[in-house]
Amino acid sequence: MKVLVPVKRVIDYNVKVRVKADGSGVDLANVKMSMNPFDEIAVEEAIRLKEAGKATEVVAVSIGVKQNQETLRTALAMGADRAILVVAADDVHTDIEPLAVAKILAAIVKEEEPGLVLAGKQAIDNDMNATGQMLSALLGWSQGTFASEVDIDGDNAKVTREVDGGLQTITVKMPTIITVDLRLNEPRYASLPNIMKAKRKPLDEKTPGDYGVDVTPRLTVVKTEEPAARAAGIKVGSVDELVAKLKEAGAV
Amino acid sequence: MDFALTEEQSAIFDMAYAFGQDNIAPHAQKWEAEGTIPKDLWPELAALGFGGLYVSEESGGSALSRLDATLVFEALSMACPSVAAFLSIHNMCAKMIDTFGSDELKARILPKAMTMETVLSYCLTEPGSGSDAAALKTRAEKTNEGYRLNGSKAFISGGGYSDAYVVMCRTGEDGPKGISTVVVEDGAEGLSFGALEEKMGWRSQPTAQVNFDNCLTATDNLVGEEGSGFKYAMAGLDGGRLNISACSLGAAQAGLNATLQYMSERKAFGKSIDQFQALQFRLADMEIELQAARTFLRQAAWKLDTGAPDATAFCAMAKKFVTETGSNVVDQCLQLHGGYGYLSDYGIEKLVRDLRVHQILEGTNEIMRVIVARHLIAR
Ligand SMILES: Cc1cc2nc3c(=O)[nH]c(=O)nc-3n(C[C@H](O)[C@H](O)[C@H](O)COP(=O)(O)OP(=O)(O)OC[C@H]3O[C@@H](n4cnc5c(N)ncnc54)[C@H](O)[C@@H]3O)c2cc1C
Ligand SMILES: Cc1cc2nc3c(=O)[nH]c(=O)nc-3n(C[C@H](O)[C@H](O)[C@H](O)COP(=O)(O)OP(=O)(O)OC[C@H]3O[C@@H](n4cnc5c(N)ncnc54)[C@H](O)[C@@H]3O)c2cc1C
Questions:
Q1: Where in the numbering of this chain does the Electron transfer flavoprotein alpha/beta-subunit N-terminal domain appear (chain A) (predicted)?
Q2: Exposure of A90 by Cβ count < 10 A (0-12 exposed, 13-18 middle, 19+ buried)?
Q3: Domain B120-226 belongs to what topology?
Q4: Eight-class DSSP state of B375
């Protein structure tokens, strides 16, 4: 079974996010970018499936700017076998919307015929949480979202989902799309030899046109704002005063 | 000329940094208090290829360039310079064995050194000889059973902790040409250790005197040829100096990062202290010094990698400059933390203590100037 893993290049989770002066979005010029952490978990899961003999090949795909190559090399260094880069924008600030990504992925799925697509549940930049679900709809495949445990068994996959207030276990038919949550696994570090090997693994470059997909945005960003600064706190002298203040504020 | 790190180099740095932050930084203070680094850390580092950073691929190493290796040490020392520096010593020994050892010795020692089941220590300094290392007195007599060693090595990082010792000892005449290198494994007859040294910094690493009392090691444990030991010992030092400089650089960068964070939160006279211009200028100076140090270090590493004739002088210059810059920067970090910098909770005073010794070992910074001056005058 081949596993396809889409990976997104996003602003590194350690970077202090700054809004662009014109409010059109977040400033991404000269900031550190990394693989979306949920996608790292997806890559890790795919590699573990291969190590367990349940997958034969892991193919990583990234859609965005040319620099996404770096993100794909990270996936290759972790253990993916090859990569496909779809160059769909020149400017790092151009976000390729979930529907366009899902359409490109659907076309790649038709070409590559994987038995499983493992994706992050969402990207930490726009938090859309939509690509996996849209891909499922476009392909007519089953889906198991927010996975915290995955057990592939022949024609079925048992997926434990993180739902509000607990866990839900479902069985889905293969081929399927699984979107992964934080607790599924802890991604490995790429070792030095694997970082070196990654350079020699195949990385195909494509364009949306190769798949007949138009990536022109359909959504308009009206405004991007910093969250309101937290108001200064106050110091209280005693427990009684604390309780009184909380009552005043209607908090207890 | 291209000053940018390649994609691969960035990946190496990021990986080492992430490992350090996840697996070393949270424990650095505890390990310092305990005076030892848990031995099970090493195989974890080795699994990432850190057991033989610049050991050849044939011997199971990662075959990195020295410049790439400085990235690893810079990144790891952002978590703890004492742990990173210890790894540097093991790597220096592994590289010596890989470059100069016989195939038999390599096959016997290196596989476990690469997985770091065998941690290696470097034994050059003696109680009576430090900077003048070629004056060493530890003797090795060749006998029918093997080499019999007598003498002592001082200040040995990993003394009593490591699994094998790479020992520079005298097999012939006085002076550098009478020196050989032998491997002595832990548990060898006649091998013993002094008490743990009480130190200012590098406290998580055990340092002890290593004593040889008719200590027996196999004839096959000779590294390379008799009489070439001093040459081998020195061959490792150019790169060792780069590593130790990288350790100063990474730790100082971590100190500066922590200081920036602290200053944005700490208020005095009604504003956060990073709003005082006097302090902003100091931050700017620290940044300028660190960037200069980084550029200088990487240039020296590049010289060593490309076999430039002035590589030794550049490694010496970089070592002097970067280790002093690192110490100056962390001292400023402490100052900018006010009284809190002096408390161990903030981790800054540890950096001041850890980095101080980088001006002393791998050749003192005076000896670095001796090397540079000799190079100048010979020109
Ligand atoms: C924590 C720690 C760990 C160490 N780990 C190891 C290890 O693992 N293996 C190992 O072999 N060694 C190790 N050392 C030893 C270290 O390499 C020596 O301390 C160092 O080489 C200096 O030697 P010394 O202490 O004998 O000082 P000395 O050589 O006695 O020097 C004293 C002072 O005189 C100066 N000086 C000496 N000669 C000259 C000259 N010609 N011109 C100008 N100034 C001069 C020196 O710069 C210094 O300031 C370690 C030391 C420490 C502190
Ligand atoms: C071991 C120890 C013992 C002590 N003992 C006592 C004691 O017995 N009694 C007691 O009362 N206190 C004591 N102190 C506290 C000590 O006096 C304070 O740490 C010191 O006054 C600095 O204050 P701070 O730590 O709050 O630093 P901060 O005032 O927060 O200063 C942080 C940094 O900002 C700089 N800074 C602040 N304002 C400005 C400005 N306007 N312009 C430029 N730079 C500025 C400071 O110079 C410093 O570098 C002790 C501290 C220590 C570490």
A1: 23-215
A2: exposed
A3: Butyryl-CoA Dehydrogenase, subunit A; domain 2 (2.40.110)
A4: H
Kindly state the average pLDDT of the residues B44-61: 97
* CB A121 within 8 Å of CB A129: yes
Residue B26 CA to ligand 2 centre (angstroms): 27
Index of the ligand 2 atom closest to the CA of residue B343: 53
- The DSSP H or E segment spanning B121 is strand B120-123
Please give the distance of CA A252 from its chain centroid, rounded to a whole number.
Answer: 39
Q: Kindly state the percentage of chain B with pLDDT values over 70.
A: 100
pLDDT in tens, B71-81: 999 999 999 99
* CA nearest neighbour of A198 among A72, A103, A90, A94: A72
Tell me the torsion sign for CA atoms B254, B257, B262, B265. negative
Closest CA to B319 of B58, B29, B43, B70: B70
Residue A198 with chain B: CB contacts under 8 Å: 8, 11
- Rounded CA separation A232/B103 (Å): 68
CATH class belonging to A2-249: alpha beta
Could you say which of B7, B19, B64 has the minimum Cβ distance to residue A70?
Answer: B7
B291: left (phi over 0), alpha (psi -120 to 50) or beta: alpha
Per-residue CA distances from A191 to A115, A195, B139, B288 (Å): 28, 6, 41, 32
Q: What are the domain boundaries of chain B?
A: 7-115, 120-226, 230-378
Question: What secondary structure, in 3-state letters, does B133-159 show?
Answer: HHHCCCEEEECCCCEEEEEEEEEEECC
Under 8 Å between Cβ of B170 and B139: yes
Residue A44 contacts residue A187 (beta carbons within 8 Å): yes
Cβ–Cβ contact B10 with A under 8 A: yes
ipTM: 0.87
Question: Do the chains contact at A189 and B19, CB–CB below 8 Å?
Answer: yes
Residue keyed to tokens 């202090």: A16
Domain B120-226 in the same topology as domain B7-115: no
Q: Which two tokens stand for residue B71?
A: 């990235």
Name the architecture of domain B230-378: Up-down Bundle (1.20)
Q: What is the 3-state secondary structure (H, E, C) of B177-224?
A: HHEEEEEEECCCCCEEEEEECCCCCCCCCCEEEEEEEEEEECHHHEEC
CB atoms within 10 A of CB B58: 11
Task: Give the chain B residue nearest A70 (alpha carbons).
Answer: B7
pTM: 0.92
Residue count (chain B): 379
Distance B256 CA to ligand 2 centre (A): 19
Q: What confidence tens digit (pLDDT) does each residue in B136-159 have?
A: 999 999 999 999 999 999 999 999
- CATH number for the region B7-115 comes to 1.10.540.10
Domain ranges within chain A, ordered by starting residue: 2-249
Chain centre to alpha carbon of residue B273: 35
Greatest distance between any 2 Cα atoms in chain A: 69
* Ligand 1 center–CA A16 separation, angstroms: 43
Backbone angles phi, psi at A163, to 5 degrees: -110, 170
Number of the ligand 2 atom closest to the C-alpha atom of B266: 30
Taking each helix axis as running N to C, give the angle between helix B311-336 and helix B229-265, from 0 to 180 degrees, rounded to the nearest 10: 30
pLDDT at B357: 98
DSSP B58-101: TTT-----HHHHHHHHHHHHTT-HHHHHHHHHHHHHHHHHHHHS
Answer whether A193 sits within 8 Å of B62, measured CB to CB: yes
